[in-house]
């Protein structure tokens, strides 16, 4: 095996758990191969990381304060999940103000390469100006990236009436979408459109694209996207398994509760750190879980902890746990044998964690590329079933107090996934058995991919070689 001890690689994650956790996982993976990794992070995120991670050999965490005040943000806002939707434009300004300290750091460290979140395009421009190779980390999978690229280039939704579905052209598989399932940045007039357009422009500086995925999870899409982009693709996932032991320590109370539950009897419910729902929808979820009779762990934002939620918690008693805030150790929770299903928003990190744990998904996409990920999960690889959401909550417009999925549907689909009822509509006991079989097989493929000699294992070595010789 080649020695990479002379390599110094700088990582700069986007400040949101679904982005910084997998990129820190990648830094840990890179360090485990002998390279030196520096992770640029703000003090708030640094304080949330487990002490054992901070002691990882080969990793240095470089703290840069987040310029909240300079951008007109209230004190204490340092991550995207803390930002009120009305202040998203100021958050984008704060991100751009990180360019100067990042430039100073690059000049000081002169790293072999930079691996940065694609949502921080100034890192690409700065690295290119200093002659340092820049690798993009999009934070999502190749299927969603391929769908997004096709829609951006071909605009198929503009040729069909809004009421009709349309086929996404040029993909390895036939994929149909509706207008309500589109990533909102595709549509004109959205407040986040300009922000994501800048990120897309940074593609011209990319030496390569680092993806938290593996070949069997997205069959045919590595070749397709690499051909479309003309850039080298490095499939190095799933990367979440590298932190599971630390996460068990972080969630000792939840793990103790899970030990008392039968195998595969608990559904884990979490919609990520950025999804915000109106109160009416939150209460419908709680009542649906209550009606289902299934044991559950339900993670909600602290701001969503209304008195009605507390009443649901009191009624279900020991059958359910409601976590207010964020579970930093989600990957470890999913791998517990008592977990039998995952009600998820289809964020890519959540999808890969479920696959690595072999847990079938009940999919409920909300925004962004999550409807694309749902297509992959349910239609292409058959490792989940849909809850039936036909539209999402547009990021920044969640205050519209509507219910997209009612308690009866939630209860029915939870019972179907957990095999407590055959339910009605699409899906059956036989379908769920097929999903369980498929996700178990995919878990084994993931294990082989990251094992020594596997496709993801070898892709890490290839990435390091490109960092050395680019």
Structural descriptors:
alpha/beta; UDP-glycosyltransferase 73C5; 2 domains; transferase; 42% helix; 15 strands; UDP_glucos_trans; Rossmann fold; UDP-glucosyltransferase activity
Structure explained in plain terms:
The chain folds into 2 domains: 254 residues, Glycogen Phosphorylase B (Rossmann fold, 3-Layer(aba) Sandwich), CATH 3.40.50; 200 residues, 3-Layer(aba) Sandwich (Rossmann fold). Helices cover 42% and strands 14% of the residues. It has 19 helices and 15 strands. Strand 1, helix 1 and strand 2 form a beta-alpha-beta unit.
The CATH class of the largest domain, by name, is: Alpha Beta
Number of helices: 19
Q: Tell me the number of strands.
A: 15
Widest sheet, order of strands: 3-2-1-4-5-8-9
Helix vs. strand class: alpha/beta
Principal-axis shape equals globular
Largest sheet: 7 strands, parallel
The separation of the N and C termini measures 19 Å
Poorly predicted runs of 5 or more residues: 421-426
CATH topology of the largest domain: Rossmann fold
> Which percent bin holds the helix content?
40-55%
Give the strand content: 5-15%
Family: Belongs to the UDP-glycosyltransferase family.
Pfam families: UDPGT (PF00201)
Protein name: UDP-glycosyltransferase 73C5
GO molecular function, one term: UDP-glucosyltransferase activity
What's the short story on this structure?
The chain is of the alpha/beta class and 470 residues long.
How does the SSE layout of this entry go?
Layout: E1 8-12, H1 17-32, E2 36-41, H2 43-48, H3 51-54, E3 59-63, H4 88-96, H5 99-109, E4 113-117, H6 121-129, E5 134-137, H7 142-154, E6 166-167, E7 176-177, H8 193-201, E8 208-211, H9 221-229, E9 232-235, H10 244-250, H11 252-259, E10 266-270, H12 279-292, E11 295-300, H13 307-316, E12 320-324, H14 330-334, E13 339-344, H15 348-357, E14 361-363, H16 370-380, E15 384-386, H17 407-417, H18 429-450, H19 455-469
Helix pairs in contact: 5-6, 7-9, 12-13, 12-17
